[in-house]
Amino acid sequence: MFQTEKLIAVQAKAIESAQVLAQLAIENAKAMADIHYDATKDAVVATQLKAAQILTMKDAKEALEIFTAEEAQAIFCEVSAIQGKVSEVISKSNKEVVDMIESTMDESKLELKKMVKEISNGVPTSAAPAISAFDYVFDATLQGFDQAYAVSKDAYTSFKKTIESSLNLFQDQYVPSKKAAPKKQKVIAA
């Protein structure tokens, strides 16, 4: 009966963790929706202003002249800022999820080790070699699990760095850095 109570407690904790993860997902979805709402609202205002300008124009060439390279770069800056906000929300939520998963895994491993120890303590001494072999296999399995987790964590970190470098590349290509000072031409004396 004691083991059943422990298993029920472990399941209750797993359900609680799932609820926390669901709440985190809801909060992140709201943060993303807020970012997109603000961006959409700003885009609508900018579009209305440009539409009003276009409606007051009498010459079609004027309509083409209101769209400048500086405005395009400003739009790229805004898009980059939005991407930065989205990246920040995703990064923060991923860190919280990873921390929660690591904590849950550590607790689960401790509970499993306790359970194995309790079970092995109740076994007659004549079965000690079998228990020793079981403990060895159990520890090796946990080590294999830890190694697989470490590899997947490294792969995630690599993926995250790739995404960040792609965003930075996009930013470097389309968002101008500070303009360089114009070069002065040298005058050659005759």
Structural classification: mainly alpha
Mean pLDDT: 77
Encode the helix/strand succession as letters: HHHH
Helical coverage, percent range = over 70%
Largest sheet: none
- Spatial extent as radius of gyration: 30 Å
> What gap, in angstroms, lies between the N and C termini?
105 Å
Work out the number of β strands.
0
What does this structure look like?
There is one protein chain. The chain has 190 residues and is mostly helical. The protein has four helices and no strands. Helix 1 packs antiparallel against helix 3 and helix 3 (69-121) runs antiparallel to helix 4. The radius of gyration is 30 Å and the shape is elongated. Mean pLDDT is 77; it is low at 178-184.
Q: Which helices and strands, and how do they pair?
A:
Layout (H helix, E strand, L loop, with lengths): L1 H54 L4 H6 L3 H53 L6 H47 L16
Write out key terms for the chains shown.
single chain; 190 residues; mainly alpha
Structure summarized in a few sentences:
With 190 residues, this protein is mainly alpha-helical. It has 4 helices and no strands.
